[in-house]
Specification:
The chain contains three helices and ten strands; from the N terminus they run ααββββββββββα. By secondary structure, it is an alpha+beta fold. It has two domains: 78 residues, Helix Hairpins; 106 residues, Immunoglobulin-like (Sandwich), CATH 2.60.40. A five-stranded mixed beta sheet has the order 3-2-1-5-8, with no helix packed on it. Strands 4-10-9-6-7 form a five-stranded mixed beta sheet. A hairpin with a 4-residue loop joins strand 6 and strand 7. Helix 1 runs antiparallel to helix 2. The two termini are 30 Å apart.
Amino acid sequence: MFSSGDDIEMYPGAQDHARAVDDVMRFIVWADIILFVIVVGAMFWFVYKYHKKRHPHAVSVHGNVTLEVIWTVVPVLLVLYMFYLGWSNYINTRFVPENSMPVKVIARQWSWSFQYATGKQSDTLYVPQGRPIKCLLTSVDVIHGFYIPQLREKLDAIPGRVRYLVLYPEQLGTYEITCSQYCGLNHALMETRMVVLPQDKFEKWLGNAPAKQQVIDATAGQ
């Protein structure tokens, strides 16, 4: 795991999206724990209550409409609520701020490259603090997964298509970028970094770009 310059934890929730993902995950985990306790508890209660020593002769049990409605409606409502949380969080990630900076992300076996509108190219993603970044993802060979664990951001790079992902680099530091899709022999080695710099240091780094500027279509992406 790459280190951070601002005493950031391994998975710090560095933006609102990350915190929202964590909240949804915690809700699902606690819901699973509660349901597990209820189901297993009911199982042991039935084993105790209807044990052969207590009921040596089997008795027919008729259905209970109220219970059947409850154990049908409650799980359905719970699943729909989980879907709502995930969908609303996903929709928020599709919004592209007007001041976002486009960066073309090119995946290949087994490396990443990043191209800026000035013509600058790098194998490390350098971004300015506090400015939204619109990553335009594509692949030149097979499907790769652009994944930044600390930001909870992940999107597949697909050959022949350009897809977009918006990042909000709020904290200075260095963040790991990995490939989340198995892409061949050296898949495990396909990693790089996102480095969040202060605005002045980023402009100084970007200023070393070639004189000829490269046109990046910021409206591209699916």
